[in-house]
Every structure is written in C-alpha cells, then in structure tokens.
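Letters spell out the chain; the tokens describe the backbone. To illustrate:

===
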Amino acid sequence: MLHHKPVTGTFGGVCGHVTNRLPFARTPKDAANIKLVLPHQVTGSYGDARKRALQMNAQHGDHVALVNRDPYTDVHEFVEQGLGIASY
C-alpha cells in the first residue's frame, strides 16, 4: 500500500486488512481475492514507498517494542538487504 499512499491508523495486528485499503481493490470481494501484486502496480514507486515506510515507522518511539508498533513495516530492509534491490 505504501507504493500508493501514506498509511494512517492501525491494523489491529491483522495485516490482511491492508488489502481493503489498496486503491485497486474497489470492493471487499476484490480485496479478498488479491493473490499477488502485478509489476505495473508498483514499478517506479519504490522510493516513495520507502520514504512513506520510514515516516510511518518514525511515529513510534524507540521505547515501543516492535510487536507493539502498529502500523509498522521493515519490508524495505528485506528488499534492500535480503534481495539487494535498491530501486525498481
């Protein structure tokens, strides 16, 4: 979702709720059937997604345990460190 817009609010520990907020999921039925993200839905927006992730994560202080941060993501670290991808 961060490829499309900033994330506000919480997910209450249920990450699956993010699909309902995707701009290309127009109905709950669309969201329930999302199996993959197509390249044209995210290509060229990694920089924006990373920036939004860092802004989202910054709303939590260091004293807050990772399991208590909502919303929070570190998928950009996996992409960069685990996959060696810096942009797409």
